[in-house]
Design a protein that fits this description.
This protein folds into two domains: 1-27 and 105-198, P-loop containing nucleotide triphosphate hydrolases (Rossmann fold, 3-Layer(aba) Sandwich); 34-104, no CATH class. The protein has helices at residues 15-23, 32-38, 45-54, 67-76, 78-102, 134-145, 149-158, 162-168, 179-201, and strands at 3-8, 28-31, 107-111, 126-131, 171-174. The chain is globular, with a radius of gyration of 18 Å. It contains nine helices and five strands, in the order E-H-E-H-H-H-H-E-E-H-H-H-E-H. The chain has a five-stranded parallel sheet, sandwiched between helices. By secondary structure, it is α/β, with parallel strands linked by helices.
């Protein structure tokens, strides 16, 4: 099993940008968001259970999950949200653990936006937080997602605070500087992780 670095950060912090740089170095990426989509794809146990509870309204015409409808439903019905979390979190967790076990690179990057919120720190050997200030998060998210500032503020309020993420971090990437500075930070951490993974695999 690969040595695992858990990568997290708030919305608009640049998690994908950082993960892509590690991937370019040959590091396997396990993305919780990708897995979350896989466990509810047509024919999956997850989607079948959702349809059994909510009916055909939970499906699009092509048989895929009607995400917008489900999101609206669960946020207005706390019991439904709890049921959905109880269904999906174990499926996602199991798939993430298996994907990390299957990784072929010397270490792998487990990208989990809600790592702190869902208390998944134990899935990683080391925690890397991509950090930016809240004002930068808002500016970047507004530009990227074409949503209202009120919506971005609501997402920020629902996520762990900046301090809560930093409190669990072993390493921090400050993603408020230039591309070159980001590259420098990733390069340094990559060499650190290679060393740590080698030591862990050798039982040091």
């Amino acid at each position: 099993m690969a040595w695992v670095v858990g990568l997290t950060g708030g919305i608009g912090s640049g998690k994908t940008t950082v993960a892509d740089r590690f991937a370019a170095k040959g590091i396997d990426i396990v993305d919780a968001d990708v897995i979350a989509r896989e466990v509810v794809k047509p024919g999956s146990q997850g989607l079948d259970a959702i349809v059994a509870r909510f009916g055909a309204l939970a499906l699009n015409h092509d048989g895929s999950l009607a995400r917008a409808w489900l999101r609206e439903r669960v946020f207005s019905q706390p019991d439904d949200k709890q049921w959905l979390d109880d269904l999906l979190h174990p499926l996602i967790r199991t798939r993430m653990i298996q994907a990390c076990a299957d990784a072929q690179s010397q270490y792998c990057l487990l990208v989990v936006p809600l790592l702190v919120e869902n208390n998944l720190m134990t899935l990683a050997d080391r925690i890397l937080v991509v950090d930016v200030d809240p004002a930068t998060q808002i500016t970047r998210t507004l530009a990227r997602d074409q949503v209202s500032q009120q919506q971005v503020q609501a997402i920020l309020a629902a996520q762990a605070s900046r301090q809560q993420r930093l409190d669990v971090a072993d390493d921090v990437i400050d993603n408020t500087h230039t591309e070159a500075e980001l590259d420098r930070q990733v390069d340094a951490l990559h060499h650190t992780y290679l060393t740590l993974a080698t030591q862990a695999n050798a039982g040091v």
